[in-house]
Specification:
5-stranded parallel sheet; alpha/beta
Length: 433
């Protein structure tokens, strides 16, 4: 077999699809379910639950405005049932899509034996190999950590927890806290250092005050012992509630140990063409570390596939847009390679943008918050933190323009589709040009 791909998450699935489209022979090997963590345990599950919490949030808002009178009764087991039903449909579609370009899919646990791959007691030789085995939740070494839940357990819960302790201070911790707080849980966040360090200080304060106001956030707090229904901290706090770990990810790189070079954090070491130190062996997605985001994994998988098919391709990580899926979306992007000195920086803050989805928020003044840092000398955007119902699509547009190195003057040619891209208009054409 010319090309073998291990792992069918975003990197492996899109890589195999790209190879199939290029007319290459492909075997895609998957241990569990096609589409990996994203569909089955990760961001798709988070997005599905957040769709529901957004509806609850809107319902509460409309009730408060007085023109809608309704009460919502939540059936968590029915939510889980319908998420699983949707996942099953999407798995079938993903499999059909890959098989439609001639790819063979084998379900089973693979092992690497030099120039061959063994799965289900059968060996397959390869000319090119792509390792896209993803990552799993990182569980810190804490007394009683076996009692903690992770994203793998969300669809195993019988009901909405009465009390929940989310251990971690990043994006996943915030998203989990938002979901279960809206569904009715009493939620604590325990951050070892600061909370939401990925976004700016003002954006973080807006999230705390306006989006997750009922969540208790404990910064600089480390658990020292975990029980099934409570957490003890080094500060002496005893917090009732089910423990939930949102403490990052660790790579599923064991399959490659002793075969390719690993980084100190045990991710697989690759270059900008997704090549490992072994000829014709590639790696992509979360197993390589870096940005652990579905769009980045897709990009890496496609780049690896093109190189496997002898179409030279490099990956660029410039201006990667990111987001928090909350009741109001949070998007952010930064050009990490900008060399702008402080005297050439100009920051514009917009307390609220009445863009798409924000009409009924105007009455209460919580239409969002955006902060944009410009490079006055080079006429570029350096950084954006945006909170609005359209923040995610806004970041997709604006990060592309940043990535393509457009001058701010070029943004004048942008024509918005009212109201879906009004925020872009406000940020660029009205606030700066």
């Amino acid at each position: 077999m010319k090309n073998i791909i291990i792992g069918s998450g975003p990197a492996g699935r899109l890589g195999s699809l790209e190879l199939g489209k290029l007319g290459e022979d492909v075997i895609l090997i998957e241990k569990n379910h096609i589409a990996g963590t994203c569909l089955n345990e990760g961001c798709m599950v988070i997005c599905a639950l957040t769709d529901i919490t957004k509806f609850i949030d809107s319902n509460n808002r409309f009730n408060n405005h007085g023109f809608l009178k309704s009460q919502i009764e939540i059936s968590y087991d029915k939510i889980v049932e319908k998420i699983i039903e949707t996942q099953e449909k999407l798995r079938k579609l993903n499999q059909m899509e890959n098989e439609s370009v001639g790819n063979e899919i084998i379900y089973g646990e693979a092992s690497i034996e030099g120039d061959s791959i063994k799965v289900n007691n059968e060996s397959f030789d390869y000319d090119n190999l792509l390792i896209a085995t993803g990552a799993r939740p990182f569980i810190p070494d804490i007394n009683g950590s076996e009692h903690g839940l992770t994203n793998k357990d969300i669809l195993k819960l019988d009901d909405v927890p009465e009390k929940l302790n989310v251990i971690g201070g990043g994006i996943i911790a915030c998203e989990i806290a938002n979901i279960y707080s809206t569904l009715g849980s009493e939620v604590n966040i325990l951050a070892r250092s600061g909370f939401l360090k990925e976004i700016g200080k003002n954006a973080k304060e807006y999230v705390l005050k306006n989006i997750i106001p009922n969540v208790n956030v404990y910064e600089n707090t480390t658990p020292c012992k975990i029980f099934k229904n409570k957490v003890l901290t080094e500060n002496g706090d005893e917090l009732e509630g089910i423990p939930f770990f949102a403490t990052g990810r660790t790579p599923n790189s064991e399959i490659a140990e002793g075969f390719v070079e690993l980084n100190p954090d045990r991710t697989i070491k690759v270059n900008e063409m997704m090549e490992t130190n072994v000829n014709n062996v590639y790696a992509a997605g979360d197993v390589t570390g870096g940005y652990q985001l579905t769009p980045v994994a897709r990009m890496e998988g496609i780049a690896a596939a093109r190189n496997m098919a002898n179409y030279a391709n490099k990956v660029s990580y410039k201006c990667i847009p990111q987001k928090l899926s909350l009741n109001m979306e949070v998007g952010f992007v930064e050009n990490e390679k900008n060399e702008c000195c402080d005297e050439d920086k100009s920051t514009i803050a917009i307390p609220g943008i009445a863009g798409p989805g924000a009409f009924w928020n105007i009455l209460t003044g919580d239409t969002g918050y955006s902060e944009i840092e410009f490079d006055k000398k080079n006429n570029k955007i350096n950084k954006i933190n945006s909170i609005s119902p359209s923040a995610i699509s806004d970041m997709a547009y604006l990060s592309y323009l940043m990535r393509e190195d457009y001058d701010l003057d070029d943004y004048a040619n942008f024509i918005e589709v009212h109201p879906s891209t009004d925020t872009n208009y406000k940020i660029i054409k009205n606030m700066w040009l």
